[in-house]
Design brief:
327 residues; alpha/beta; Rossmann fold; twelve-stranded mixed beta sheet; 7 helices; globular
Length: 327
């Protein structure tokens, strides 16, 4: 069980993340989540309070109400998942709410892949009339707040080196791999005494780069952020598909609302298809873009708006129709 010292250690880690994101005492912060039993939300909220921020909880509000609160109270920092950042844009369009006149300086995202995807970052900037609004962050309940966005505005994550000992391994052999190669992130928290883990295999796929910052201190950067999860990847006719890769293609189309990826076992092979909230012409264009990206034909079915589930927390877009259909 975590101790009060453990909790303060996690809040200090979040405090560094807030500092790196430019959050200053007195900043107006809005937390667009339901405050369920998810460690990251509570630590972010309490760390902002300790930093002296005006912290506004959005639990229980509808998406439309949250957008209005953000605009009316001139919120400067919005905390949510990448999926929810996109959902707020769609809701604003459907409700006739203009996002152009806002006070946002950063949208700090976590909880799933996507915060470093250029397509999502560009879409958010365009909708909110900003520049470099998305700020990626990474953490896990099992270890705590882990990383902030690499300085420079290009995305990617930098691990808090005074709080964690990071490694990247080959998930099959568990051997260490060289910088730049795709592997599984392994973390050892250095000060979470009440809930200790040693060499925790996160299941997250990354490409690491070791280096030094301007002060000469060692850095451990995750290029492109979290690139996917081991248990999410599927192999379709010899092609490795990760949710983040598919999402990057889909998000190139502003006309698409929600989408869903279906994986089905047929005879001796897996098949993949996509349902997307868009018109038939856009579905055809998406099929072509997916084939260009992966050299694989992925059928796309056109669906009307609001016919697929939307998400506030981590999105669950990849559906395995056969429970045994795993990689």
């Amino acid at each position: 069980m975590d101790t009060p010292d453990d909790w303060q250690w996690m809040l200090r880690n979040w405090g560094e993340i807030l500092k790196q994101a430019g959050v200053e005492p007195g900043s107006k912060c809005y937390f667009a989540f339901s405050f369920g039993p998810f460690l990251g939300f509570w630590t972010a909220y309490e760390a902002a309070i300790q930093r002296g921020c005006v912290s506004i909880p959005g639990g229980g509000q509808s998406t439309e109400s949250r957008i209005k609160t953000i605009l009316e109270h001139e919120v400067e920092y919005l905390f949510c998942t990448p999926t929810y950042a996109m959902r707020m844009i769609n809701t604003a369009q459907e409700s006739g709410i203009s996002l152009q006149d806002n006070s946002l300086r950063k949208i700090i995202v976590a909880g799933e892949c996507g915060g470093s995807l250029s397509t999502i970052r560009k879409a958010v900037d365009k909708a909110w009339r900003g520049k470099g609004l998305i700020y990626d962050h990474y953490g896990m309940t099992e270890v705590g707040p882990v990383a902030y966005e690499i300085p420079g505005g290009q995305g990617g994550l930098r691990i808090l080196m005074d709080a964690y000992y990071p490694e990247v391994i080959d998930p099959q052999t568990t051997e260490a791999i060289a910088d730049g190669r795709l592997g599984e992130l392994v973390l050892t928290p250095l000060s979470r005494i009440g809930c200790p883990v040693f060499r925790y295999r996160t299941g997250d796929l990354v490409r690491a780069l070791r280096g030094y910052d301007k002060r000469g201190l060692p850095t451990f950067d995750l290029l492109g952020g979290i690139l996917g999860r081991l248990d999410d990847m599927v192999i379709i006719r010899g092609v490795n598909l990760h949710p983040s890769g598919v999402d990057a293609v889909v998000r190139d189309f502003d006309e698409i609302g929600e989408y869903q990826v279906l994986i089905e076992q047929t005879r001796e092979m897996k098949e993949i298809s996509i349902k997307a909230e868009c018109g038939p012409d856009v579905a055809v264009s998406l099929e072509r873009a997916l084939e260009d990206a992966f050299s694989l034909r992925i059928p796309v079915e056109s669906l009307p708006s609001k016919s697929l589930p939307s998400f506030e927390m981590k999105a669950k877009r990849w559906i395995h129709k056969d429970p045994n259909c795993k990689t």
